[in-house]
Design goal:
About 45% of the residues lie in helices and about 10% in strands. The protein has a six-stranded parallel β-sheet with strand order 4-3-2-5-6-7, covered by helices on one side. It has about 550 residues and is α/β, with parallel strands linked by helices. The longest helix is centred in the middle third of the chain and has 30 residues, at about 195-225. It has 19 helices and 15 strands.
């Protein structure tokens, strides 16, 4: 009998090992099976698409489908089996088409099996059954934990990279070399690649490709919306009708802002959308009035209290409570059974629902926070920063960012930042910032001690800042007074980690727990080669990072 499910891709897996009955995220066995089948379908398509690409034949629509399909399998994105069935069947159709294309160019199909010969079942229940047969547990039992771990590290890195590439694509930026690498990697996985050195090489190559993807996404965002500028954001409500936008997709936010102009509806950001307020082309809309709520995992309580419509873009959805399921909408790769999905960018139903809701009856308080410290803003004052370091006014930089989550152990990051010496500066990105952005840490010579670089999607900004500082001091990143204390949750954090490893960054602290898909053997490699370590206590880790331990 097939396993109910075996999901290990996020930080909150049951017992730190695997979700086998139901996901902590709300994922059910049928959804887990369909997500596994999406990956299986891409493994089947990849050898033919890779062969076609090497022959100079590419299909841009197919490339976009693969990116979106991978994105749907990232944690907290799509929980709708019917939607996942559409992706699976389209991928299977492309597999047949690409096999024919590759064959006409003399591609060698020897050694192919499994996913390349798979045919989708006739109905959804049949597909779910097929998904159970290709679960992670089946692969683990076949390959052993270390090879399975390296393969999963690669798959999750690619999933995260696909999410970033998807966002860039929404703004018209794409690179066929990214898709070609994805096909190359899944071709290797389909052929059962089990050589440790080759798998490590593919993981580092994924990191290298993702650096390019992050740079492309940065260019897409800043060319379209301007470079973020330091901006004070209201964190309390304004009287009037309201729409709350969560997730990550700036294009969805832009289109909603355009469609709500003059309609008497205020727009609020939530969670990872907070940094949108720093972009000149978005902040010019006066009805983008502020941010409401905190990180993704607090959404059920916050959405229930929000007196308007809610739009989920990209990932981070949780099971909607019945109290607001009639006023929450999904877009793009996001999906939840029974929740209205907006196709394209026509947000008419979202706006109509907002107008029918009561909205906020009065203004809230005056609480604010600062955003907009992307690489352009920070590097614009680089001489001031460098002088502050040389004079001793700034002793150390800490990158404290990444994903937030439910676990009480994540209070570590609040305590860590609160306990930092007054002569230190924090760079932050992702929703982990909600653990400490309410702390008033003051300034150093006019430089805020907490610099919000942006979304997790903006990790490239942090890399640019670190590299610029290294150049200014004529050294490398590892020799800077800079420490990275990163909290992870889902697969985008995985591809950022692979990018940092590719760049040679060492001594990263990763918490609150080590990923369940990282086997002891693979962890030993990460520790020996890159000095990866977990977290202990804020006090002990702080001393270690500052060379005082």
């Amino acid at each position: 009998m097939a396993e109910a499910m075996y999901c290990i891709q996020c930080e909150e897996t049951t017992g730190g090992t695997a979700c086998t009955v139901s996901g902590v995220c709300g994922k059910k066995p049928d959804v887990a099976a369909m997500e596994d089948l999406v990956v299986h379908a891409i493994k089947g398509l990849a050898p033919f698409a890779f062969a076609a690409a090497q022959a100079g034949v590419r299909d841009d629509v197919m490339d976009g489908l693969v990116l979106e399909s991978l994105f749907t399998t990232v944690t907290n994105v799509n929980f709708d089996p019917d939607a996942l069935e559409v992706y699976v069947r389209k991928l299977a159709e492309y597999k047949t088409e690409m096999r024919g294309v590759a064959a006409t160019h003399g591609a060698d199909f020897s050694g192919l099996n499994g996913a390349t010969t798979w045919t989708p079942a006739a109905d959804l229940m049949g597909l779910i059954g097929q998904g159970h047969l290709v679960s992670h547990k089946r692969v683990l039992d076949t390959l052993g934990e270390d090879i399975h771990s390296l393969q999963e590290l690669l798959v999750y890195g690619i999933k995260g990279m696909a999410a970033y590439a998807f966002h860039a694509r929404m703004l018209g930026y794409k690179d066929p070399a990214v898709s070609e690498f994805i096909y190359k990697a899944f071709d290797a996985l389909n052929r059962g690649e089990a050589d440790v050195n080759k798998l490590i090489g593919l993981n580092l190559e994924c990191g290298a490709v993702n650096v390019g993807v992050m740079a492309m996404l940065d260019e897409a965002n800043t060319t379209t919306y301007g470079h973020p500028v330091p901006t004070k954001v209201r964190m309390e409500p304004v009287k009037g009708k309201a729409i709350l936008v969560s997730g990550h997709d700036l294009k969805d936010l832009e289109e909603l802002l355009k469609q709500t102009e003059g309609k008497g509806v205020n727009i609020y950001t939530h969670s990872e959308m907070l940094p949108a307020h720093g972009y000149p082309e978005l902040k010019k809309y006066p009805h983008l009035v502020g941010n409401y709520g905190g990180a993704w995992h607090t959404q059920q309580k916050e959405f229930e209290a929000f007196p308007g419509a809610i739009l989920m873009t990209s990932n981070c959805i949780q099971k909607p409570r019945t109290s607001y399921e009639d006023r929450i909408f999904t877009a793009g790769p996001v999906g939840w059974p029974g929740i209205t999905h907006v196709n394209g960018h026509d947000f008419t139903p979202v706006i109509e629902r907002a107008l029918a809701c009561e909205g906020f009856s009065e203004d809230g308080g005056a609480r604010t926070t600062m955003v907009g410290f992307g690489h352009n803003a920070v590097l614009g004052v680089a001489p001031v920063v460098v002088d502050a370091v040389k004079s001793g006014a700034i002793k150390h930089f800490f990158l404290v960012g990444g994903c937030d989550g439910h676990k009480k152990e994540r209070s570590y990051y609040s305590d860590f930042v609160a306990g930092l010496p007054q002569d230190t500066v924090v760079l932050t990105l992702g929703c982990a910032k909600y653990r400490f952005i309410n702390q008033d840490l003051g300034e150093i010579g006019g430089i805020p001690r907490v610099l919000d670089v942006g979304q997790c999607n903006d990790a490239y900004s942090a890399v640019r800042i670190a590299m610029a500082l290294a150049d200014a001091f004529e050294t490398d990143i590892n020799s800077l007074p800079l420490s990275m204390n990163i909290s992870w949750y889902e697969q985008k954090a995985t591809c950022i980690l692979l990018s940092l490893l590719h760049l040679g960054v060492k001594n990263i602290h990763l918490g609150p727990t080590v990923p369940a898909y990282v086997s002891p053997g693979v962890l030993n490699v990460l520790v020996d080669k890159w000095g990866i370590s977990g977290i202990s206590t804020p006090e002990a880790d702080m001393k270690k990072m500052m060379g005082q331990a």
